[in-house]
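Thread: quick sanity check before group meeting

JM: Hey all, I'm pulling together slides for Thursday and realized we never actually wrote out the predicted structure for the chain we discussed last week. Dropping the sequence here so it's in one place. If anyone has concerns about the input, flag it before I start.
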Amino acid sequence: MTFARPDWVALAPLAALLLALMLGQQWRRLHALWDVYDDPVVRRLVPARVDRFPTVRLACLVLAALAIGFAAAGPEPSGTPASRWRPWTSPWRSTCPSR
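JM (edit): ok, ran it. Output follows.
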């Protein structure tokens, strides 16, 4: 597989890393808020499980960032120039007789 914009392939892991760091920072801030203000009012404002890191959310965000990053790079099938490849047309259409 080749990419129409191969320099953008490096952005996919960088975007995933940025999202992971942002989620970690958000969790640390919520955890600090939970520790400082141990009040029932604050417990209604923060998510249900502040004591546990949201690993499922992290995995989903990292996978989504990788998928969007690779899609932005413009994947193409190997050996097919991007200008000629049209996935919505059939390769056999030109060989079929006209009606």
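AS: nice. The two ends are 36 Å apart (CA to CA). The beta strands are 2-3, 75-76.
JM: adding both to the slides.
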